[in-house]
Amino acid sequence: MTEKNKFNVVVVGGGTAGITTAARLLRVGVKDIAIVEPSEVHYYQPLWTLVGGGLVKQSTTLRAMAKVMPDKAAWIKDRAIGADPESNSFALANGREISYDWAVVAPGIQLNFNKIPGLEEAVGKDVVSSNYRFDLAPKTWENIKATTSGTAIFNMPTGAIKCAGAPQKIAYLAADYWQRKGVLDKIRIVLVLPGPGIFGVPEFAKPLLEVVKRYNIEVRYSSEIVSVDGPNRRVQIKNLANPDAPLEEMSYDFAHFVPPQSAPDWIRESKLADTANPAGYVEVDKNSLQHVRYPNVFAIGDAGSTPNSKTGAAIRKQAPVVVSQMTYAMGIQSGKPKQYDGYASCPLVTSHNRCIMAEFDYKPQPTPTFPVLNMQKERWDMFMVKRYGLPAMYWNAMLKGLA
To answer: Which of 123, 207, 289, 355 could covalently link to 382 via disulfide, CB atoms 3.0 to 4.6 Å apart?
Structure first.
């Protein structure tokens, strides 16, 4: 652990975005890089849905942080709690102040279980779980196996969240399991979504509607869960299309809840935040990922204000852009820097061995990696990519700045 307090580049966050960007910067010759990250463990979060669905062991989703930290980066094992872009510095939890010439802000996203009354008290207890937490994903699977009848509720909150397909993927995995066990006809499945459709890209919405029909899932469109009563196993659902309508009361025998999300509080309260957005994401140009007011600051990943889907695949496409834009601004790279087109990928797992690989951009239009294949249907090969290919690429190439 270094005691140095001034660096050429400070990367805040040792998650997917921070490690990938730092590794790429080092590969193009940028020196004197520090990564601020308090955790001793690094997680591959995209597999947590499969942990909750009983298809992957929890232990396969983590590695020691020391194993993925770039060798030539200084690892500051502390947590950022404040940012002052006027003085080019970050405040750390232990009282230190770290200064920079250039900054990459990649602290990830904050889970706000407390924003839905009763949810924070209910999650992890009784029949309530959430794959958005590492410790609770196995509980989802336990609850799914234990459910043989009654009502199962799944939700997606309003506002941007990481992996926007995850709230419905676990509903499909649960329904697939119950169908294979012969109890699906005894279980009422309710999926509460804030938007008017099942998915924002029409080409992928169509096959998903067939999945919903196959499992007989009731979808509450333009709706959100506004309160949870854990002891009595009840929720209240608000109709967003008709806010004056009475709240719908519904009881449940199993529930998988996804919390509202935002930028970390210290970002939201800093001058880096987009003041027009109450979620407080770092205000960057959506194509360059450079801060709109502080040109020596870039943001990548879930904490940025870009209007793309917040996924690991998005980070994979954003990282080369940040490195290109930053080195151009540094005077290291000549020529026109790269631009980000909003690419994101959402592997929509629909059963224990099928997946719709949704890839799209800002427009939003499909942007398939394999255009010769029909990606607008459930595929076994894309499930294998999701289950085995993407994790292998993540650990062996992406975190090393090679993909």
So the answer is: 355
